[in-house]
Amino acid sequence: MIPVVALVGRPNVGKSTLFNRLTGTRDALVADFPGLTRDRKYGQANLAGHDFIVVDTGGIDGTEEGIETKMAEQSLMAIEEADVVLFMVDARAGLTAADEAIASHLRTRQKTTLLVANKTDGIDADAAVGEFYKLGHGDIHQIAAAQNRGVTSLIHYALAPFAEEFEKEHGDAPEEIDEWAEEAEAELPTEETAEEEAERLRNQPIKLAIIGRPNVGKSTLTNRILGEERVVVYDMPGSTRDSIYIPMERDEREYVLIDTAGVRRRKNMIEAVEKFSVIKSLQAIEDANVVLLVVDARTGISDQDLSLLGFALNAGRAIVLAVNKWDGLDTEVKEEVKRELDRRLGFVDFARLHFISALHGTGVGHLFESVQEAYDSATKRSSTAMLTRIMQMAQDDHQPPMVRGRRVKLKYAHAGGYNPPIVVVHGNQVRDLPDSYKRYLMNYYRRALQVMGTPIKVLFQEGA
Ligand code: GDP
Ligand code: GDP
What is the pTM of this model? Predict the structure, then answer.
């Protein structure tokens, strides 16, 4: 399960700065769901070989009263859901009462907590951080988020316990973590690793996550699906943030339904349990092969729907969209909803869109045809010969531009992974190709490979 890192600290210590460092240029999901009184930011991050979710909990200073207490509660909930807490303090400002209040709260939680002193640039850091030992959180990790100093090794240290898999594959990280992180980034997947992945994916059940805002009808849909299908066994949730994993069969294919709504069956009763949790949704997306995003026809597409969709896209998941509560709407309203969907969901025109009623069961059966199709597209093997041929066709139709007086030359292409399909294009100066040409190639591959329901990635490797 992808780990969750929460950034905690009083206002102004540098949480947003670190958040932006960790998530790079990727969009943050700003949670503004009903029931949350304050925006928290969630992002996807990859650093030092670790994939993780990072949460900026917003500022708490431990002295809140009234409405502020409510707001702080939301941040405290994020702490409960995290695997690792980075407790940030400001090395320049020195120890404050707010830091102490937060420290004493954190000491009461059973959470792995690292004390991080930020803004250590341009000062005598060792001297400055000395007083923070009083907080009783052990070692102090010195960073300068704004300068990106110490950040990679901090993350490596924090997430090493979650990285056994990774270390098995790549061996131990060398001492120069930062250097190693750069190398890891430069190393693109090979045909062989892609083949192994394809093999693994073909032999496993399809993990299908049902995702959506509160009240869009996820529980109703899950019940509907489970009512119709043969359910093999049930897993009970381990903790509040865990989704329920439900193995099932359909049309002779095996699935594992990742149920974020928390439907569980007790004897013959089906009931919805937990409340909505952003982290739970994001982890389910990361863990799934196919994401079924449910939106509500009656409220229209919200920014949160788009954020969840963006997260699924960034994670490279195959996607099927379900517009629920399609029952009992008059034609005019239906037309209006369709226009809105066209306008706002144009960027995922590769994903199938279904109009359903989870309540009445209308259209629910057909969802699985698209789930199947999306998974098959995402895992369909592509040979080097075919990918190279498509690349040449694209190049013949539209020559790559000149870069520094030389024409960029594409040489060959091979598969670099599946779910999502990754195409690795080799050639001279390919990294310098303008984004417009990279997009052109991606769209060309999409059309030629006829992938429906999955994003694809095209990566570029210099030389042969
Ligand atoms: P937040 O309120 O905890 O999210 O803090 P911000 O990320 O907004 O940072 C507060 C201020 O500290 C901003 O002016 C940042 O530019 C500054 N800052 C953040 N990180 C560093 C750092 O590593 N060094 C220095 N000198 N300033 C920093
Ligand atoms: P969740 O929070 O996403 O799990 O949403 P629920 O499944 O609990 O549904 C929220 C509300 O929407 C409930 O009152 C449902 O009865 C209602 N609902 C769910 N699906 C449909 C549907 O297809 N049509 C209509 N009219 N109402 C629905």
Answer: 0.78
